[in-house]
Amino acid sequence: MPDRTAKASTAGNRAALTLGPLLFNWPVEKWKDFYARVADEAPVDVVCLGEVVCSKRLAFYVDVIYEAAERLRAAGKTVVLSTLALITLPRERKECAELVRSAEFDIELNDLTALSYLEKTRPFRVGPFVNVYNEGTLQFLARRGAVSVCFPPELSLGAVEALSRAAASMGIEAEVWSFGRIPLAIAGRCYHARVEGLTKDSCQFVCARDSDGLDVKTLDGNPFLAINGVQTLSHTYCNLAADLDRLREAGVASFRLSPHSGDMAAVAQAFRDRLDGRIAKDEAWAKISGASGATAFSNGFLFGKSGVEMVR
Amino acid sequence: MALLIARTCGMEQFLEVPVLPGWARLGAGLLPASLLESVVARIAKSTLRRHPGLLDRLDSYAATTVLIDPTDLPFGFYLTPSCDVPVTVLRRPLCRDHAASIAGPFAALVAMLHGRLDGDALFFSRDIAIEGDTSAILALRNALDDAEIDLAREFAALFGPMSAFAEIPIRAVVPLVERFTGAVLSRREI
Amino acid sequence: MSNHPRLELVCPAGTPAGLRAAIDAGADAVYCGFRDETNARNFPGLNFSRAELEECVAYAHARETKVLVAINTFPHAGNAGPWHRAVDDSASLGADAVILADIGLLSYTAERHPRLRRHLSVQAAAANADAIGFYVREFDVRRVVLPRVLSVQEIAAINAEVECETEAFVFGGLCVMAEGRCSLSSYVTGKSPNLNGVCSPPSHVVYRKEGDELLSLLGDFTIHRLGAGVAEPYPTVCKGCFDAGDFHGHVFESPASLDASALIPQLAAAGVAALKVEGRQRSRAYVSSAVRSLRCAIDNYAAGLPIAARALSRLSEGQASTQGAYRKTWR
Fold this sequence. Notes:
The complex is a heterotrimer of chains A (312), B (190) and C (331). In chain A, 32% of the residues lie in helices and 21% in strands. Chain A is of the alpha/beta class. In chain A, 60% of the residues are buried. Chain C is α/β, with parallel strands linked by helices and 331 residues long. Chain C is built from 10 helices and 15 strands.
């Protein structure tokens, strides 16, 4: 059995905040500034770093990741390195193997491929791109050494509750996607390149133009989705700030905030204050609305409805 | 050297969408709706009895009314499988009292019923159009497809114990009508 | 005669009649599912009861055809019962294999029914040799259905490394996204491929005429707006017509079906063991035509003859076909 003493810094009754990996392609300077500010100002407990969407982007900031990781660690954050979500190329396999074998930081798997490289004794985290829908899967991952699991964003509250209880009994921390555009699909094809008349192999990194993804609208002008290279996200930002009480009751231990170009430190602060009971739902909501720059929020998945809906 | 010729792996057996000739439409137009209804409802009722799997597959959709709208005929057929009289026939203009409709040339609809044309392909090519409760249409299509309906046989079955005898003249006439109308009126698996 | 490897033709069966049509048209194996959320084609009027499956297994085995049961959705939290029963019943009814995606269910099956052959569903999106190796090692998976994100060259590289058979899609509907990783449908309708076995469920689809245009709506969103005479696709989000920046059109994929029949020699050379036809939701007319055509193509290839496949475009979504990711430029 893997050594569970290496578990996260978030144990105990206090709910944790996790800053998920940045999903978008930001210029390296902006990237560095963002994580510097997170280290200094954002009240998050865990910070995930690494390229989840497109392996071609990694080259731009691979040299600064460890620097940022050290700075975040010095600021008291638990640093986690996240793997790519869809691994196909030999280069991607090699990079993933190297990543999970570097013992310095916690590892978050976003594709089961990574389990092939992971020593049987090494604890690991599971990201929202791995399909964890039921207790059987949770059990398998627990036996293999999982210490935390971020559930797929489409799970309903009932499922979150059943899984969080099961997770707790297996020594796994349950995490829920709580803020940010929802990752809905990943593909072999790059849509950013496609809409620019390019292909993935000759993409000219056009995805870097859109720091929160490129809006996709229906033909009647209705905002619908956002494309981010090979990834498709929701247009709405998931926002569970008003649902934190019931999620805590359901046994959720950690809440994931996904980075956007808005003021993430302020978003994180509003979540922290709400979790600690310092501010009311409405105030948290207003702060997040103002800081995030998002025009529409959603929480429908949690209520078993379409994900786009906002249930109040 | 032996001359090897590859079999052409094509779709010869796949019919073009047939169109009813003008005289057939005119002829059908002369039929009184009440007579048509009494015959069609009887066939439908007997078919449902002979293929219990149909209602089973339709499940709750058996109570849904679907308008079968052969666009080249002056009639519309309102099908509610769980009803005592499962089909009502109306002359155009048709009323909108149904949950879903499937519209297309008569010959396309019966070819689909007989498993000769694929419903999705007819939909892609826009030979048929559907409106309303799409689930009800799908349930009906899937249930009928599984039942392997043969209208000629179902018609013969109306003659009860005499159906085997009735089928002989029907089988003789059907190919003639098929040839002249282009419509597939019986099941022949390809 | 040539020494070309014999490819297994795996065909869809949405109903018992469809299953018989596939077998009569020359399928080597058919795949089907139970009438509930345990399979990824959970559409009204489709699929098999236990009694139907039993009869169909007898029909298939009498004709030396295998029956594979797809249990390829993800068991619900707190309610894995239907999925476990589907596996148990497949074993007791004599299925030749089950097609699974969830690691919890794979684990259950490997423990409870070690002799029941396990195939990995495309819904598991195992897209490289290490991921496949994981499933083979942990659950003794004997065949992997390859995700439709791979090129022929990548498939060849995978086959050189893995210790199980691979199955590749040759014809039918084309998912653009990595399967099993897509919640576009549930974002719009609340019904998900992974949990409910439906993508763009008919209950949330509305077709509406507006002037000369035909609109298809999924939930609250307009997916297509088509002028008269334009081929109609399924109302799935990934085949929809949208605006993105200055781009106007099919942002994700044009409505077209996969037709890789011309690539049969390349797929065989890449070491693929089986070719799969998509379309359990289609009629027996589709199954007959597609299977007959591919049977002929595969037999021609095995006999060293030209394939001479004709496009099955009439059967195809948007009346058009593509070779998808098998050609690298697709990306």
